[in-house]
């Protein structure tokens, strides 16, 4: 299939209202994907960063076969295929365009590890093509996309697993049960901490597009702009067109856990402040960010801190969460370790360190066709990402915002509501009707 045929097919898909068959889109869902004892054939899309972990994690699963690697950088793709062949002693199919992956009837499911601005659209297209999806965090680049991803997963009855691995940790599951059972009393506050070393990235300015990179496909839904080495392959995180800052990067694990532990959804009041105080580089997102999310109707609050350099730990935590109740508090360090401290004397309470396998949980749900088995269902892709987006909007507008979580709109704030979505670039458009 040539690129014009691929583009035409997915232009139609973006505006689809009727059946997929009516517009010439793939409707074939491999029967063997539903068999409890049959092989699940997978493609990994985006293999330079987190995609490497996807390949390794999925390849460990019984009766799961990674059959295709996809990347818009031909050097990355070739290196990935070579490494794969050496490690697993077999060849793997390579593709440069994710739409070709979706047209391959022999692929049952995909994992998506592209830059953030591609996550939701790539996952929606996969659902429309009959593929189950494991998508990296954040599941959406803006609030609107998260809602559309839920709609797509529901309409096409697809398993969509969000890459919030800590939800599969046995220790963290136990910690949440303690919170629900009242171990630390009435839980009223959660803190999320993201203290990661983020250096000066300088300002390389625009330059010629490398011959190995399909810059048009890399930009995808974003508006077209000149190439810069500041974007590819990691520092796109710090530019609004592609990333969401560290609260929307590492922070999604912690926003998710804040909401899970407090047993809340999106907030009603958001205040954020911060900025760039360290480096005179070209990052657009704040280096330091403090966000407060209030839930007046339930008497709860989330505090979130992003710091990039030279900072103290909080009870030993650089990346993690703290929960406060009227009888004690809980410290969650990383993805698989919790401790509790009870009473005024902070007496040590229950504690545990134990991990889990988020990929295994995804495959279990795919085989069983049972979404209730998922530890990281599609709703977490919307909510954990969404609260980070709300904090970023409050920061960018520089004022406290009031939000209606039921209708998912800001109250009487046109400027803020415009930032709930983005202007898309055809044919890479998140459809209004999935």
UniProtKB/TrEMBL annotation:
GO molecular function ontology, one term from the record: nucleotide binding
Xref: Pfam families: GFO_IDH_MocA, GFO_IDH_MocA_C2
UniProt domain Gfo/Idh/MocA-like oxidoreductase N-terminal: residue ranges: 40-163
Sequence ranges assigned to domain Gfo/Idh/MocA-like oxidoreductase bacterial type C-terminal in this UniProt record: 203-257, 358-429
SUPFAM superfamilies assigned: Glyceraldehyde-3-phosphate dehydrogenase-like, C-terminal domain, NAD(P)-binding Rossmann-fold domains
Classification via PANTHER family: BCDNA.GH03377, OXIDOREDUCTASE FAMILY PROTEIN
Identification of the protein by name: Predicted dehydrogenase
UniProt organism field: Spirosoma endophyticum
Lineage: Bacteria, Pseudomonadati, Bacteroidota, Cytophagia, Cytophagales
């Amino acid at each position: 299939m040539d690129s014009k045929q691929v583009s035409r097919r997915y232009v139609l898909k973006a505006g689809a209202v009727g059946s997929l068959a009516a517009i010439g889109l793939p409707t074939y869902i491999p029967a063997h994907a539903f068999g409890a004892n049959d092989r699940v054939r997978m493609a990994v899309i985006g293999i330079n960063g987190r995609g490497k972990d996807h390949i390794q994690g999925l390849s460990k699963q019984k009766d799961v076969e990674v059959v295709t690697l996809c990347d818009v950088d031909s050097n990355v793709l070739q290196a990935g295929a070579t490494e794969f062949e050496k490690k697993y002693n077999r060849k793997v199919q390579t593709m440069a365009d994710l739409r070709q992956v979706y047209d391959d009837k022999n692929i049952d499911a995909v994992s998506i590890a592209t830059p953030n601005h591609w996550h939701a659209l790539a996952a929606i297209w996969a659902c429309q093509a009959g593929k189950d999806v494991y998508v990296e965090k954040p599941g959406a680049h803006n609030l609107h996309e998260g809602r559309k991803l839920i709609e797509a997963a529901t309409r096409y009855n697809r398993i969509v697993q969000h890459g919030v691995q800590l939800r599969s940790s046995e220790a963290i599951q136990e910690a949440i049960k303690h919170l629900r059972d009242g171990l630390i009393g009435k839980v009223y506050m959660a803190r999320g901490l993201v203290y990661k070393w983020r250096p000066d990235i300088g300002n390389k300015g625009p330059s010629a597009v490398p011959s190995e990179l399909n810059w048009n496909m890399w930009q995808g839904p974003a508006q077209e702009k000149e190439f810069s080495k500041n974007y590819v392959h990691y520092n796109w995180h710090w530019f609004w067109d592609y990333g969401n800052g560290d609260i929307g990067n590492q922070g999604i694990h912690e926003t998710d856990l804040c909401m899970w532990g407090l047993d809340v959804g999106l907030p009603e009041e958001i205040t954020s402040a911060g900025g760039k105080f360290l480096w005179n580089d070209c990052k657009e997102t704040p280096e330091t960010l403090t966000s407060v999310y209030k839930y007046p109707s339930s008497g709860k609050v989330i505090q979130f801190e992003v710091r990039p350099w030279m900072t103290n730990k909080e009870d030993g935590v650089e990346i993690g969460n703290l929960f406060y109740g009227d009888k004690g508090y809980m410290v969650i360090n990383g993805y698989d370790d919790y401790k509790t401290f009870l009473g005024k004397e902070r007496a040590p309470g229950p504690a545990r360190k134990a991990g889990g396998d988020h990929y295994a949980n995804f495959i279990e749900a795919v085989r069983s066709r049972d979404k209730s088995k998922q530890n990281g269902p599609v709703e977490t892709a919307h909510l954990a990402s969404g609260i980070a987006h709300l904090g970023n909007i409050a920061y960018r507008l520089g004022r406290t915002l009031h939000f209606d979580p039921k209708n998912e709109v800001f109250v009487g704030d046109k400027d803020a509501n415009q930032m709930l979505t983005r202007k898309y670039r055809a044919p890479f458009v998140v459809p209004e009707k999935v």
